[in-house]
Recover the amino acids of this structure.
């Protein structure tokens, strides 16, 4: 910000989120202990959340599966 009374610029620097987090962890023993406890599990949890779940949409005797099987057999009989 420019101050008209002086010839220098006043700039307010806001610290980044990681820097604030490091300061809080270094000053508070509770946070430091919690971070140590969950170091491995956080990584595993993030991998689980990012992986795509496998969802079975049809069972062996579903109507959709039987209809699709009948359509496939009709297509195989047709000449290409």
């Amino acid at each position: 910000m420019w101050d008209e009374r002086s010839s220098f610029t006043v700039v307010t620097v806001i610290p980044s989120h990681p820097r604030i987090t490091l300061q809080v962890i270094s000053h508070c023993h509770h946070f430091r202990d919690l971070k140590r406890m969950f170091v491995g599990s956080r990584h595993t949890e993030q991998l689980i959340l990012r992986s795509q779940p496998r969802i079975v949409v049809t069972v062996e005797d579903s109507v959709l599966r039987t209809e699709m099987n009948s359509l496939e057999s009709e297509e195989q009989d047709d000449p290409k």
In short: The first helix runs from residue 17 to 27. The radius of gyration is 30 Å. Helices lie at 17-27, 29-37, 39-50, 63-77.
